[in-house]
Amino acid sequence: MNHRFRPDTMIMKSFVDGGELGNLMYAKSGWLRRRENDNPWITKKAKAGGGVFLDLGLVMFDLAFWMLGYPEVKRVSASTFQQKTKEVEDTSIVHLHMKDGMSLDIEANWSTFLTEDVYYCNIYGRQGTASLNPLRINKELHGNLVNLAPSKLESPQHFFKRSYENELSHFIGAVRGLHAVVSTGEEAVLRMRIVDAVYKSAKSGKEVILSKI
User: 127 by DSSP, 3-state: which?
Assistant: First the structure.
């Protein structure tokens, strides 16, 4: 889950955890690519296990779910489409409804008819909003809408490279006992339980209710 370690997402997370947005209401995240993935194995169900949701959707789900503080998911609704793939989905739309009333929408696509890729994560609170790519932290101060994010930021390509560098540094520090692991095995199990519900909902065409573990 290297996207947690992007410099812009870490800044955004600090604002969310610091209560700058107030009580959180909902989030939207997505990753849309202009065309399907060039790796042939990734469209083979026997090898990949799933399609674009496992490739891109899972990343955006984890990022937004982490931003929200891992609220308990009660209901899952999902739709998938196969525009240019035969064995797995190349389009996925997912809605998660939380026990506390928050909601999260995730979209992922390998073959969007766009001129450029789209990558975003938006968090909406009662006192402000935060969004990625570019990073913006919007709040109303003295009657004016103000962006609290740093004015000078690196390029998205730089953030992507830094995410792997920061992740490796974090892993080494965790192995040395300097700090706790950010992405735990317990979180991975929870994520995959929700992923199973996503595919079950998409296959059945019905909402899936999650019981508490």
Answer: coil
What is the rounded radius of gyration, in angstroms, for the C-alpha atoms of the chain? 18
**Residue 31: in which H helix or E strand, if any?**
strand 24-32
Measuring CA to CA, which residue among 119, 111, 1 is closest to residue 66?
1
Nearest C-alpha neighbor of 28 from the set 105, 120, 93: 105
Look at residues 103, 102, 85, 86 and name the one whose alpha carbon lies nearest to residue 94.
103
In Å, how far are 53, 65, 137 from 164, measured between CA atoms? Answer: 21, 20, 24
The whole-model pTM stands at 0.89
3-state secondary structure of 70: coil
Tokens in use for 208?
């899936």
DSSP state of 211: P
| Gap between the Cα atoms of 13 and 109, Å rounded | 25
Q: ∠ CA(147), CA(64), CA(123), 5° rounding?
A: 30
Task: Encode pLDDT of 69-111 as tens digits.
Answer: 999 999 999 999 998 888 999 999 999 999 999 999 999 999 8
Intervals of the chain under pLDDT 70: 35-38, 212-213
